[in-house]
Amino acid sequence: MAAMTAVVADIGGTNTRVALTHGTTVRTDTIARFRNADHADLSSVLKTYLSDRSETVDAACVAMAGPVHDGVGTLTNLDWTIDRSVIAAATGAGTVAVLNDLQAQGHAIAHLPDDKLDVVFGGPTSGDHAARLVLGVGTGLNAALVYRTERGTLVPPSESGHISLPVQNEEELRLMTFLGRKHGTPGFEEALSGRGVENLYAWACHEAGTLPPGFSAHQVMLAVAEGSDEAAQRAAHVFVRLLGRLAGNLALIQLPYGGIYLCGGVARAFGPYYEAMGFAQSFLDKGRFADFMRQFAVYVVNDDYAALTGSAWHLQELIETA
């Protein structure tokens, strides 16, 4: 059977990346980025992309930052609705899929080379059929389990980023109160995401009795790297501590013996700080279960196109099992 030609897309809150594939291989020379603000909907993006190319596509898969149900999804941070029928009309593809972006990351994990995975904590993982957990930290926050079965890869949908932020000490109670003034009962995403970095920095300035300068997440990370801004340092330490706790909590709930994989731009930005700022200590802080926690390895995915790869592999499995 000839390798399929597919169009795959990864929609974030700000940009959409589109590429063509040869079978399960993303053709990196075809990757294009579109500003969402310049387009009315995804159909416009796909038609614009394909109008510059002569290929006929057999399949299409869209990974999006938002919940998906029965092939229809609405983006969390963008007023677009994604529908399989609309994608089929825009691309002419016979096989069409819509995935949450974390689901797409989950489909990619088993196919990423070792040099795309940076070890944060732990050692070897269990075999191919052990559950894996992807934890996406970017514009938003989410987590999803990955099961590899004899009949294909299963990545159940999830909206884990909106579970309530837990409190373990007085400092965190003050943080929760600070976030709650704006967000009601805050979820993890209000602290662990791009805007979460900004929220934590504003809180750290509030704690210090200073007026926050309105830094973006990127500016906060620059201040962390420079090391001269105490509020930025405090915000970063709290971020890493909370991320370690969330990963540890999810590990106990899901038992991902195949590893935990941190993905997304914010997860990668914190890569140089996980060790020094105590990710492992927070991850292991489970009382008498601390030793149990040592069997879960944690990695950072440093492949910015993993969601496109996962989309290609998902389409291949759909075609093979059709």
Can you give me a brief rundown of this structure?
With 322 residues, this protein is α/β, with parallel strands linked by helices.
Write the layout of secondary structure elements.
Elements: E1 5-11, E2 15-22, E3 25-26, E4 32-35, H1 42-51, E5 59-64, E6 68-69, E7 72-74, E8 81-83, H2 84-91, E9 95-100, H3 101-108, E10 117-121, E11 132-137, E12 141-149, E13 152-154, H4 170-183, H5 194-208, H6 217-226, H7 230-254, E14 260-263, H8 265-269, H9 279-284, H10 290-293, E15 298-301, H11 306-321
Parallel strand pairs: 1-5, 5-9, 11-14, 14-15
Antiparallel strand pairs: 1-2, 2-3, 2-4, 6-7, 7-8, 10-15, 11-12, 12-13
Helix pairs in contact: 1-2, 3-11, 5-6, 5-7
Structural account:
α5 packs across α7. The strands form three sheets. Strands 1, 2, 3, 4, 5 and 9 form a six-stranded mixed beta sheet that branches. Strands 10-15-14-11-12-13 form a six-stranded mixed beta sheet, sandwiched between helices. The protein has a three-stranded antiparallel beta sheet with strand order 6-7-8. It folds into two domains: 122 residues, Nucleotidyltransferase, domain 5 (2-Layer Sandwich), CATH 3.30.420.40; 142 residues, Hexokinase, domain 1, CATH 3.40.367. The longest helix has 25 residues. With 322 residues, it is an alpha/beta fold. 38% of the residues lie in helices and 22% in strands. Keywords: Kinase, Transferase. Belongs to the bacterial glucokinase family. It comes from Mesobacterium hydrothermale.
